[in-house]
Amino acid sequence: MSSALPGSALVAAGAAAPHVGAARIPVPPGVVVSDPSLSADGVWISFAGAVDGTSGLYRHNTATGETTRVTTGVEDRGGSVAQTSTSRDGNVIAWTRHSAGHSTGWDPASQVYVTDVRWGITRLVSSEVVDRTPGNEGSAEPEISEDGTHVVFTTRATDIIDKPFHGAGSGAGSDVVLAEVGGRGESLLRLVSPDRAGADFTEPSVNPDGTRIAFTRNASSSSASSVVLATRASGSDRVSHRDVAPGASPSLSADGSSLALVRPQREPGDRPRRATHLRTLAAGSEVQADVEDKGWSLTGTSATPVADRDGGTVLFALTRDTGTDLVVRDVDRGTTRTVARGVDGEAGHDLSADGDRVVHVSGGQLHLIDLGRLPAPQAPAPNAMWNPLVQRSATPARGRGYVLRVDPALWEPLRASRIERQWLRDGRVIAGASGLEYEITAADVGSEIKVRERLHVPGVPVGVATSRSYKVKPDLAQLRVPAKVARPRGRKVSLRVRVRTLPGSETYVKGAAVPQGRVTVKVGRRVVRATVGRNGWARLVLPAQRPGRHQLRVRHVGTPYVRAPAPKKVTLVVRRGR
């Protein structure tokens, strides 16, 4: 018998086999297990068990191997235990009691309880404000904070807090409520979801001290599902809300810095699936978690993610045609491993806050996986799913060249990563060129430009991805001149020409080198020159000519950045009259 635990010990201490990787947890004969939950350190497992039509709350100590049925004091009310949630020390357990005969879907008669095994006390949390009787509608989905002082849950009741529940009061809606359950007194309930009529708020997740609560705002006719984060000061009724991201099934990391969630995605062939993501709240950044080691999405649809203390490890269920597996993704090191196959997906699973242990149900039996004792996969260098791509940019150049840009590599999703980027000329480093854009210089013409990316992730080899070569060629110049110019005798002739540039190494895009160079024309023995402005225009002032028709040849003199076009002919007509 476990100390300070009301009830009888059903499996003797030491009866459990040592956990080497994965092991089945011994439970009383005939007990069918569901809804397991782990304490933060993975020492305690709470679960629901049913035998011969009788449901009960159980607790297992992984250190001693002892499994005990917990006396709740409400066994005589019938119904079934479900949805357990365990505090850090394993002494406080939140759970749902479903009505007799309930199977799936929402139970309008379900209620949320908290059992403190130290004191042998079970209290109804979802109780009516005045006389503490069960609420007038169902409550479920409890999650207890690590310190055991706060419980969040979903409810459709309208009489368990002083202010009306706008979501639940509309019939189809539901609300998220926070209950303070510390000590041995009555619970203090607060509404933490927004006051929105008809809204459906579900799937709450709470941080260790109850100051951050994430939950799902379910899809409506006007919007898709999204995850909402509620933040409050300790002991305060004031709650602020913000939409975090599209998705559902949030799981807050214990430190409150990250959350795992699922959202719709499309598989190849346009088949719908649900994908698991890990979001860092402060940065607003996300990485996909249900991916292979190389970063490509896993086949199947994922659900019910659980994040560890800092979000570095995410556990999720992956359902394929062959059944449901449990998969663990290290989003910092980039390793993915299937830790259990053929599990009971509807019976639940959990991950300890330290990320070392997984509990799940298979065939009605309870199983514990010690991730620290499984062969740890070797973390390979991060994989670039697509290499960088160098191409012409539309950004105007400051000098006389043109600008190249790189589309960054698509790396496998890793959270704690840092990219180092370097531009290369014929394989050699270009000093100071490490951004997303690079303006070519005269030294680059005729060379091959590449971009090399290095992805640095703590604890794993450096990933390297290099783009294909971009051959730097001069741009093309187009020379535009009038076909004929007529002037009276004795006057100087002003000839305006225009130079336009086009990319010389690819189809037309914006971002060619600016018009540049010089234009020349030979008049008699004289050569007249003019510089092309950045607007493309040049003005040639020709000396006076004798009357008649003169054939002039206008040439453009190229630069390292612009290749000269063919000369153009201009007919100069000098009239005899003034």
UniProtKB/TrEMBL annotation:
Compositionally skewed regions (Basic and acidic residues) per UniProt: 264-273
Disordered: annotated segments: 232-273
SUPFAM superfamilies (UniProt xref): DPP6 N-terminal domain-like
InterPro entries (UniProt xref): 6-blade_b-propeller_TolB-like, WD40
Family label: Belongs to the TolB family.
Protein name: Bacterial Ig-like domain-containing protein
Pfam families from the UniProt entry: PD40 (PF07676)
